[in-house]
Amino acid sequence: MAATPLVVMGCAWLIQSDSLLWIAVAVCVLLPALVVAGAMCGPGAGPGTCVAILGFALLLFVGPAMNDYVLDRRGDRQEGVVTSIEGYHKKHGDGRECSVEGTHSGRTHTYEVNDTVGCGEGMERGQRVTLVVDPDGWLTTRLSNAVHGLSTGMAWTCGGLLAAMEASILYGRMRRRRR
């Protein structure tokens, strides 16, 4: 029960990977953990339901927060050149995907960067850009204009969700039971 927030944070980190296997593992670990934590809060739907909902909300916020923090602190910044730009159709408009060749340690790597991580309207073929690459290869490569670090609002949101989840667990465990 006390490890529920750690399980949620670990699963949020696993979901940041592009691998469907890790996402499936995270879901298979998270759902039973939230159900058990909710059931351990005692009879009644109040605290247990709050634990499950707040745990899922924490998962949605803490994963991207850790992603932003890690890329800002540990990300390897390297120069690159946009080699091609391709457009594609999304549900609500058009999207863009840029191929960027980055050179690091004398080796040339090609990275695919889409519009959600920096490939915007102002990009042109041959343009010099700065890439932010995760040294472990776990997180998606971004352009430096899309890496802003952990925002204060995101940190407060994650902290508030964590505190609310812990308060729900504490309330559910401490309330009086009918005999």
Automatic annotation (TrEMBL):
Q: Which UniProt keywords apply?
A: Membrane, Transmembrane, Transmembrane helix
Which parts of the chain span the membrane according to its record?
20-41, 48-66, 153-172
- Could you tell me what this protein is called? Uncharacterized protein
- Species for this entry: Streptomyces telluris
> Top-down, what is the taxonomic lineage of the species of origin?
Bacteria, Bacillati, Actinomycetota, Actinomycetes, Kitasatosporales
